[in-house]
Records
---
Amino acid sequence: MNAFIDKMRRRAGRYLDVRPSPIRPARGTFSLSFDDIPVTAWTEAGPILAEHGIQATYYVCGGLAGSQNLGLPQFDPEDLEAIHDAGHEVGCHTFEHVSTLRIGAAELDASLARNAAWVSDVLDGYEMRTFAYPFGDCALAAKAVIDQRFLCGRGVRDGVNTGSADRNLLQAIGLESRRLPGYDLEALMSETAKQNGWMIAYGHDVMDGPTPYGCTPDDLDRVIRLAKAAGLDILPVAAAWEKMAA
Ligand SMILES: [Zn+2]
């Protein structure tokens, strides 16, 4: 029964309170993001991003710092500083990594405020400008809260954002070992280029023998090479958004 209610609530979040924003970058655009920040999303992925000369978005939960999540060690505050110093965007993923289906609007807002304060403390006043929903769960009441605090919010529903998209629930593709075999990345990227769309990818751990939610270093390298080959601009989420709005 609870699973059924969650399904209905996810559907309400998807179809109601849609705030469409035009997605028409001058060139097709690709954004890479990492959620939760298992430490390998930095130690393994960071050098690959640097080698390609690109920046990504790291969606952080202050409450996961120095902890284990899904059996994997997560980032430390020093990692977050290094991520920020390397020019990557730091985005918000709630403080506790809580599903918006489990909390009300006021509680969500408090979690976002807690995360903002934590990040500001670690990164010397830094303000996060974009959001990713933990578990991809978007409750209807959460959308107005996200709209007020951020430029945009990203879910995990498969797809490329083209033409117009709900800015509080952008679509994405998973750099996840359980999902990657199901994508024709070349076709998705060439379609993104042709339609001047915005493809956002999200991942978690980056290592050989990744979890179902992560990918290998080779997978990451390949995705970046394909995006470049398709002629896509590669930008963090907030920078891509701003370029589109300009
Ligand atoms: Zn997450």
---
Amino acid sequence: MKEKIQKLEQEIKEALSSVRTQEELEAVRIKYIGRKGALTEMIKSIKDAPPEDRPYVGKMINVLKASIEGRFKQGSASGAPVPAGKPSGIDSSLPGAKFDLGSKHPLTQAIDEICDVFLGLGFRIVEGPEIETEYYNFTALNIPDDHPSRETFHTFFLDVAAERHERTGTDHKALLRSQTSTVQIRIMEKEEPPLQIIAPGKVFRPDATDASHSFMFHQIEGLMVNKNIKFSDLKGILDLFCKEMFGKSTETRFRPHFFPFTEPSVEVDVSCMICKGKGCRVCGRKGWLEILGAGMVNPKVFEAVGYSPDKWTGFAFGMGVERIAMLKWGIGDIRIFYENDLRFLKQF
Ligand SMILES: [Zn+2]
């Protein structure tokens, strides 16, 4: 009986391997597992086998039948001629399945590119928490208690208990940081100068969303502290950065401005990379684009972190990553960065 089953199995395998069309496959099916097929007859004869062999023989026949039925299903489902000698259905001559490679988000690319310029100048990347307190976001940065930026329509305050600032023993409300300048304070509290850091990260402001505003965006903050750091150092480094970022022919312009945490403070413009300074729609016909704020660290900020303003000087700067990415790639609407539209993302 066992030999008969094995012989039949071999016979069926050979018959299947020579099958080339759907009709031939059907003929094989009828011959072996049709109503009067050889395998069907064999199932009927299990009862004639010695009782002790029946479970084993039954199992062998069932396994064989299941595998052959599977093979017929496969052949008829595809409706295609069955390739000879390849019952597994794998055709190594077919082209492989194509899959798309991912790429970095344009904002990540912009952050990497900006950071690379400063890493080359000896800066190091640091990070700080997105959930902050009023102390780090305002107080230590010399932003007075009655400053309008501390109001709820300029800052997301969090509905949690106030947090005590260890060193000063004062309590401060929790908030989502509205600027990455918070990281300057956290690093200066922990480390002694000289310092050369950049801090990329997300910031949050309750602005209505439109083509140039978002309630969340990215900033990169920079800080350099050492002995005898001068305004000319700030100018040199930021001018070099702008040329690396927007091209060698880029010109920079430093305009006086006011920030509570720097004194003196400036806004930095670059010559418009679209019209090359002639004036166009993007630069509002001015030929210049504002891209960052900067200044010499206010001695009051040094006092807040326990540095002696007589011993150390430094400069700080901050820039919006989205704005730089929009200028660099000519993107007209900030919202497109957050929509995850593959038609947009695939261009980078
Ligand atoms: Zn222009």
---
Amino acid sequence: MNINAISDTILDETSSPEALREALDAFVASCSEITNIRPDPSFDAWAEDSLLDNGVAINPQAAAHCAIDYQRSVVFIRGVYAAINALKARFPDTPLEILYAGCGPFGTLLLPLLGRFSAGELKVYLLDFHQRSLDSVKLLLADFGFCAHAVQTVKANACDYKHTGKLHLVIAEAMQKSLEQEPQFAVTANLAPQLCPTGVFIPQRIDVSMCLADLEQEKELFGQSQKIDSNGLEKSTPRYLVETVCTLIPEHAFDQVQLAQTNSDGLRFELEPTIVVIPTMADIAGLDAALFTRICVFGRYWLKDYESQITLPLKCHELSPLAGGERYRVSYQLGSYPKFHFERLNSK
Ligand SMILES: C[S@@+](CC[C@H](N)C(=O)[O-])C[C@H]1O[C@@H](n2cnc3c(N)ncnc32)[C@H](O)[C@@H]1O
């Protein structure tokens, strides 16, 4: 399968899940063969990760592995394609300046699309902290026949990189579920202000909400992303929204970070906290508090909970066992390991 056939399958909204998986597997197989980088989830191997001030830049093998988080890759690639076409209509006479921050070794969210545009239409900057990833994308550009396209690689930290001139599109996916560990928030806060008016930042919105849910039951129902049962009906289980604890909208991210404060014991640098109250309910003993992530990539392209690794729920162990009426201060902590922090304020 060549790169254009791969992108045809991914963009075709009638493609079956199996066809989409085959297309992404073929993409990864070609990329691995050309670059000699093998995808590896590396959950226990931190050795080649870079621990930066604003979060972890995962190593090239782990970044390559993101490609086979299938639904994530499909929804992002379709969203990026839709955004480029929307921007072409907005800026018909100018080559679009596109920064892909954290491109990883395979440039998964953009490389499959390059062949759909002529050489003069786009000016692309592929940025990553890891030189090995940039060397890898250069090999891919040559092998896929994209040498005539205006593509530059940039070795930089996306949390403080300053682009010369204004950008039309920024693409950044440096996150795990619940915005934990990787620097998505800090990257967005730095890069979104560098867009031109009516430019687009991808993803356009990320919401993290605290809910009460029976996670064991949900895992059984949704664990394989099969939200539809054999009768074509959407499976469901009761879930109770407690509060949205963080919303990352690119236009607001810079101000949110400016307003971030060091907490009273001086240990954390955190965004404005949310106070949540655990509802009093009869069946609370069978429920868990968990953080659920939803991502609007662009327009109608959304990733909902359980649809990808980055939108799986994260159990809030700190709140177990749940007790109705308890209040918690929930804050998103920036810094070298971004994550949510929970502080119990009182009993009932
Ligand atoms: C989750 S991977 C995603 C890879 C690829 N964009 C994809 O979506 O398949 C995140 C990538 O961002 C890079 N990255 C993370 N933080 C970064 C930073 N502060 N500056 C530059 N690159 C960073 C990592 O090195 C890694 O390649």
---
Amino acid sequence: MRAMLWAESPEGIIGSGGTIPWRYPGDLKRFKRLTLGSTVVMGRATFESMRSRPLSGRRNVIVTSRALDVSGIEVVRSLDEALERAGDADVWFIGGARIYAEAMKYVDLIDVVHVPDRISTADAVYAPAIDERAFEPSPLVPHEDEPALTRRVYRRRAPRA
Ligand SMILES: NC(=O)c1ccc[n+]([C@@H]2O[C@H](COP(=O)([O-])OP(=O)(O)OC[C@H]3O[C@@H](n4cnc5c(N)ncnc54)[C@H](OP(=O)(O)O)[C@@H]3O)[C@@H](O)[C@H]2O)c1
């Protein structure tokens, strides 16, 4: 399985100032439940937003052109290299915007959480557009771990080429 997930505001914002501008513990709990045991692939900025600490119980693959001297992570130069490393394991692309945009062609499932927080900031990072000709949206459903939130899954309509 290859998938990606993010949480976005009503404006489609996923981050600002190098971080996520809201906090919902139930969503973090669900994120952990979904990704535990898998390979998580993230961009260097997202890794830094986690204080450059790998997520426990997951294989952490960081995409960057830089050399990162951190234990518990694997550094790759491209998404292709990340997928090569992962082999047959489940892969979650976990951000940020550039990774989501580039991973769109590799994933079968996109999991989007909607937070109600209105964000007004000059340095916002936005979620990519989802092409509904390629991905079929499921109904919006309540977030099982966080009552204030909703979520929607998109599934690839036809097998990847
Ligand atoms: N709301 C959410 O669910 C969510 C989830 C994740 C992240 N975020 C937020 O998103 C923001 C970060 O996103 P971002 O888009 O700015 O950055 P990002 O995608 O996390 O990282 C960008 C960096 O990753 C590396 N990179 C990405 N694609 C690459 C490729 N194909 N080849 C080589 N290197 C590649 C480059 O690193 P180098 O410059 O080192 O070469 C690039 O500068 C933060 O605010 C974070 O909190 C939100």
